[in-house]
Amino acid sequence: MTRAAVLCGVGGALPTIAVSNEELASRFDTSDQWIRTRTGIGNRHVIEPGRATSDLAVEAATEALAVAGRTAGPAPVDLVVLATSTPDRPCPATAPVVAHRLGLGTVPAFDVAAVCTGFLYALATAVSMVTAGLADRALVIGADTFSTILDPADRTTAAIFGDGAGAVVLRAGEADEPGALLGFDLGADGAGEDLITVRAGGSRQRASGEAAAEGDQWFAMQGGPVFTEAVLRMSESSRTLLERLGWTGGEPAKVVAHQANIRILRAVGEQLGLDEKQFVVNLDRVGNTVAGSIPLALRDAVADGDLASGQRVLLTAFGGGLTWGSAALVWPDLGRPAPTPPELP
Description:
By secondary structure, the protein is of the alpha/beta class. The chain has helices at about 20-25, 30-40, 55-70, 95-100, 120-130, 155-160, 205, 225-245, 260-270, 285, 295-305; strands at about 5-15, 15-20, 45, 80-85, 110, 135-145, 165-175, 180-190, 195, 220, 255, 310-320, 325-330. The strands form 4 sheets. It has a 5-stranded mixed sheet with strand order 1-7-6-4-5, with helices on both faces. The model is unreliable at about 340-345 (pLDDT under 50).
């Protein structure tokens, strides 16, 4: 049989500090209704003082490794790929620190930066290494703490983004097994680099010899164009992959898309001719957790009983870069972990 990468574990982590829409309304000129109508979000979590992205990554990975131990038996992890746009430090990468804290020894570990598409890029990288025989068991993590780079005065980004992490474990297996990653479609367009960005802090700004302009140290997003591009790119990428796999007639059974905005998810569903009930949604509880979005949604869907063994599942995302991508698999039996905290009243 063809060697394949098989998903055998999933985990997630959220900070303990929850921020409801009502709390945001006490700080900004906004309301619970305004936020829910435009985003579908009711709650998000922010990292505790003194903690960082690696802390959430370790927590999510620990749970995913425990699940993999139950479903696939104990085995050493020989690769760690971490998707993040908010590393602990600009240098070095955060993945080696995470691998060290997990006690994984001197395995190869590196970061992938593709913002909200980061997890799918990291997943594709790990799958390629497993299928090529360069790794037998890989840990793939998506983790971000966007609260650390948001403009404190910007109500829009404060309402949308939350901190969180998700992780999956892959093992070498066969292509016809449940959990085998069946295909990917990835893309990027650097012409849209200014639509989702942090302008200051990189070599471009530092090499200019000029101080960063006021506000350029914060994350910025052009909402209208981003909405249009997100719907277009996720729909096109999903359609390309579904056609390649021959999934027609209402397949996939479930779509786990990047949890950016409920209106984006609905628009993508309309473009693909899929029912809204086919979409996994947890953004009402956690907001947009960037690279953590898809794996955290997978983890919550398993906990909520929204993913069942044998279901065909499509993953799709869009993020800064611009970047986008899709992946597909038949969901394996992973059991049911405890759900993340419910949405605050």
